[in-house]
Fold:
Amino acid sequence: MVMGFYSNAQETEFTFNNERGMTDFIVTPIEGKTAPEIFKKVIEWIKVTYKNPDKVILSTIENEYVRFEGSSDSFYAMNPISKIYVPVKYEIEISIKDEKYKFDYVGMTIIENGVKIPYFSTKSKEELENYPIFKKDGTLRSTYKYFIEVPTYLNNLNKSLSESIVSTVKKTDGW
Structure:
């Protein structure tokens, strides 16, 4: 007898492959923290992590949601011959509930000569078939071979956020 197995588990890390494309979002458990506590820590993390936090925060719903835009010179590399990083802006949505948050990668924009070009939002398998990132054998085309670094960048960003949320370090006045 053959039995099928269906899993509806939520992803905890970003991945990118020829079967599913980019992970849509990840969920990070934060035991013992309420939604208001997590929301406050997300805002604090943005204020510490980003140079102009008031400009990067695009939208908030208190205790429920934060959407922000970051920028990086090491988020995405191009050029199959020599690894050249290009400056990008990326957009993240954080949806908050008691004891967890959803980290949703919305997409990125490559900034070339002051022109913003929408690039690489999450791709479904159907979209991947119409958008030739992968060769027929399942390997990345050389133009996109460094795109696999994007999930690593996002995972590191989420790790920084989650560590900040669970941190109990108090600020001192004795500096």
